Amino acid sequence: MNAELPDVLDLRVVGVPQLTAGLDLARRLDLDMHLKVHGPLQPMPGERLAELAELISLKGKGGAGFPFGKKLRAVAKSAIRRGVRPVVVINGSEGEPNCRKDTLIMNRAPHLPLDGALLAAEALGARTLVIAVTRDSTESSMRQALAERGLSDRRGQPLRARVVRTPERMVSGESSAVIRAANGGPSLPPGRKVRASDSGVANAPTLLSNCETFAQLAVAARLGADRYGSIGLSTEPGTVMLTVSGSVPRPLVMEVPSGVPLRYVLELAGAPPMPQGVLSGGYHGKWMDGMSAHGATISRASMDAAGGALGAGALLPLSPDTCPLGECLRVANWLAAETAGQCGPCKLGLPAAAAGLAEVLGGGGRTALEALRQVTQSVKGRGACAHPDGSVRFLTSSLSAFTDDLAAHALQGGCGRPTHGVLPLPSPGYQEEGIPSGQKLMVDWTLCKGQLICVGVLPELVRQGPDGYPVLADTPVPLHLQGETQRAVRRCPELALRLEEAPAPRNAIPPSGGRKALPRGGG
């Protein structure tokens, strides 16, 4: 199926809307309508703004969950120490295929995150605002919103504001990748850890936070801490924006108060009454089994206790009629191709992990399962950015959540169910800078004699199998590996390797070892 999510999903609200107020009246709130719905917003001193963020326990809504007040204080302190003006960045780079909540906010209520960002900029004395986006529709909406406020990047203005476009990639939304893009570089993590509060855009202290975080700040500044905290849990007040996809009739964005039962949210979205699992937090998140999900509520603490993660607010229930590990394999292959290509754990480890999972699902037994666990353990904690750890978290959670299916595949050759492809992935042809090339490495087993030259030339995508023949990662060739892949093809003495156009996703699980003949006609 592999249905890519549209930019703007249908909206469902539980209780009184906060961030989505007025969206029942208009498709998009321009500045005039925005002010009619939300009212004016008064500037606030930096200390008071930080106190407000702390009173409402505001944390980043992009997945990391870092306290906003603490981040605001760190940027202010660094700017004062260095004697430079800081920069404010709205991170709307929603490159994960199962997340659309920020896209909905920026497309339909763009002035709400702008309110929060401008409030922070005024409090910090910032004179530069950067808005990072991933999609055409979002870029158009935010540029229109800036024009409605008379903001631009022209010299001489009290505050210069600009929109930066990032590719639709898993790694493009990481803070360091957004800052690198804002500085004119590629939208990739730099491979070293530098705190944005110390040095970010133009080497200045930078307050970077997620789009929803700034929108929540704007709502709280208007309501005050007490009124804001009257909705939701006392420990996690306010509402939460969610993207619900997977085994549902149609994907939705939902705004719900914190503390609402997860089962109620899934029921409203049309999920199966008892899903076999719910992926929480997206493709860097964790699986919850059906029973654990049934007892959880929408909050960081509750979902953590149930084995899940609120993360970036993505929820993906899985119906009982699809193979859960087959679904996970599709995602694992995509995550492997999303590597930034800057460290061994990502370049080598993630393709090896995806190939290892395919071998397990093909009936590789306990040996293949143990090899997969060793690969994931070797990747954990050693990456140059968060992508390897997040991908391994997804993989290890998959193995833990579906133990019966894992045993059926590893020991009996399969669970007997097809893979329907209900977890959304980008459609073919979505490729941009630095992401999969759209080609796939294939081997003709009628010619291959197992000389394994390809393993030495291209260890990122090829490894030696237990039978002495090469095992190929079942993933498109990333652009940064195209040169090495072509070299491996040229150096094969038996001319058994070829580059083909990546075939459309299939439901079938590849057999053990990935041994399959070249498809005819590229398919």
From TrEMBL:
Biological process annotations from GO: cellular respiration
Cofactor dependency: [4Fe-4S] cluster; FMN
Keyword Cell inner membrane attached: no
Domain (NADH-ubiquinone oxidoreductase 51kDa subunit iron-sulphur binding): residue spans on this chain: 329-409
Keyword terms of this UniProt record: 4Fe-4S, Flavoprotein, FMN, Iron, Iron-sulfur, Metal-binding
GO MF entries: 4 iron, 4 sulfur cluster binding; metal ion binding; NADH dehydrogenase activity
Pfam families to which the protein is assigned, alphabetical: Complex1_51K, Fer4_15, NADH_4Fe-4S
Region (Disordered): 502-523
Coiled coil: none
The NADH-ubiquinone oxidoreductase 51kDa subunit FMN-binding domain, residue ranges: 57-217
Keyword Iron-sulfur: yes
Family: Belongs to the complex I 51 kDa subunit family.
PANTHER family attached to this UniProt entry: NADH DEHYDROGENASE [UBIQUINONE] FLAVOPROTEIN 1, MITOCHONDRIAL (PTHR11780:SF10), NADH-UBIQUINONE OXIDOREDUCTASE FLAVOPROTEIN 1 NDUFV1 (PTHR11780)
Name of the molecule in the record: Oxidoreductase
Organism: Streptomyces xinghaiensis
Organism classification: Bacteria, Bacillati, Actinomycetota, Actinomycetes, Kitasatosporales
